[in-house]
């Protein structure tokens, strides 16, 4: 009589791995490697099971494991690394060239975190991090991820609301300021971006002439580089003439400063 004890134990272990695949980093790697190995033995054709969504939430990570980058960087469209310890070490994201959706909720992202260039990313969740000042964080975010359509910053001090002691004026200033930077944004936090908000954002937070042109027409990299140097010297967030209320986290600058900046750039 044949002994099926070992075979039954292996099958039981495989079932447990499959059940917990999306919640345990170790098991996830094991399942993927196991499946790829099985397919390579059973057929000469490449596997049709391409992983395009991956969750590494609650894994206590502060860097991305090399195995994950090597195995998934070319196929992933959606990546959830929420509830970890990522801070300013995000250059690994440049390896995920096809990423369109990224969840970084509940990490240690702060004002000085700079994302790599990710032109395909359209959805970014940054809820409950350590972002306290909008400027220059939002400016840097736009330069790295210019095509964002969905952005969520709730739970940060830089995103005032009645939940963290901000007034309605603070909330409105914050919302319009962020909208002014992202021309493709259709949803911010828990609300859609309306045409009226887009128009008001452009009116309140005027941008340099050359910067507006780059959104609609491609320019040589040398001109963009020169513009960025000048903008870093002269540009500041432009707010209305009203005095800065309590809790506002953008800096006030008269409209005249913007006029001087345009002359310098031109």
UniProtKB/TrEMBL annotation:
InterPro entries: Leu-rich_rpt (IPR001611), LRMDA (IPR043313), LRR_dom_sf (IPR032675). SUPFAM superfamilies: L domain-like. Pfam families: LRR_9 (PF14580). It comes from the Eukaryota. This is Leucine-rich melanocyte differentiation-associated protein isoform X1. The lineage of its organism: Eukaryota, Metazoa, Ecdysozoa, Arthropoda, Hexapoda.
């Amino acid at each position: 009589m044949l002994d099926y004890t070992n075979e039954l134990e292996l099958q039981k272990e495989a079932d447990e791995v499959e059940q917990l695949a999306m919640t345990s980093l170790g098991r996830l790697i094991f399942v993927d490697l196991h499946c790829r190995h099985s397919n390579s033995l059973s057929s000469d054709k490449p596997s049709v099971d391409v992983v395009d969504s991956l969750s590494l939430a609650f894994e206590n990570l502060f860097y991305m494991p090399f195995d994950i980058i090597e195995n998934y960087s070319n196929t992933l469209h959606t990546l959830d690394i929420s509830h970890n310890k990522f801070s300013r070490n995000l250059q690994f994201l440049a390896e995920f060239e096809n990423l369109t959706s990224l969840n970084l909720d509940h990490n240690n992202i702060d004002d000085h975190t700079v994302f790599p260039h990710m032109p395909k990313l359209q959805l970014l969740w940054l809820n409950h991090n350590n972002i306290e000042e909008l400027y220059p964080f939002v400016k840097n975010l736009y330069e790295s991820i210019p095509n964002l359509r969905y952005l969520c910053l709730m739970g940060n001090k830089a995103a005032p609301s009645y939940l963290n002691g901000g007034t309605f004026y603070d909330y409105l200033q914050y919302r319009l300021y962020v909208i002014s930077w992202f021309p493709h944004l259709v949803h911010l936090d828990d609300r859609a971006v309306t045409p009226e908000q887009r128009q008001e954002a452009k009116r309140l937070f005027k941008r340099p002439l050359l910067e507006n042109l780059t959104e609609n027409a491609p320019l040589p990299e040398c001109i963009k580089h020169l513009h960025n140097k000048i903008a870093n010297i002269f540009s500041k967030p432009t707010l209305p003439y009203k005095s800065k209320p309590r809790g506002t986290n953008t800096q006030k600058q008269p409209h005249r400063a913007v006029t001087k900046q345009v002359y310098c750039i031109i």
